[in-house]
Amino acid sequence: MVALAAIVSVYHTLQFLHILPFSFGPIHFFAFDLLGAILLGADRYRPDLGGFRLWNLRPEGWMFVVVMAVFDLILVFISILGQSTLQAMLPAILINVIILIYCLLPGVKAAFTR
After folding, report:
1. How many CA atoms are closer than 13 Å to the CA of 75, on its beta-carbon side?
2. Taking the model in full, what pTM does it have?
């Protein structure tokens, strides 16, 4: 699921750079789409940095994924305020909410505590 969130983030980054067409609606980050591309492009490293730590049940991997999901949700909502449509940002919202819900389940949280 973390890799899927990174793929959606890369997709939105390419949309902000006007490389990919807008499929669900227009995407704008206020008047400066390059800033949106840079901020969402940084989210691409989520599976690289957090995936190995998640696989080994290390607590910092769990924390990294939770923080990145919250960061991505904040960026998506800022992008919606900056003239993007809700339909265009809906995949990122759904995936990150699912990641947060899963990570905050008691069983998952207990597996990452020492």
Report:
1. 23
2. 0.75
Question: For residue 25, what are the CA distances in angstroms to 58, 70, 94?
Answer: 39, 23, 16
Instruction: Compute the distance between CA of residue 25 and CA of residue 31 in angstroms, rounded to an integer.
Output: 16
Domain map (residue ranges) of the chain = 2-112
CA 83, chain centre distance (Å) = 19
Read out DSSP for 43-85? GGGHHHHHHHHHHTT-HHHHHHHHHHHHHHHHHHHHHHHTT--
Question: Residue 77 and residue 24: Cα distance in Å, rounded?
Answer: 16
What is the chain's Cα-based Rg?
15
For 22-76, how does the pLDDT look when each residue is reduced to its tens digit (9 = 90+)?
A: 666 666 667 666 777 777 766 666 666 677 788 888 898 899 889 888 988 998 8
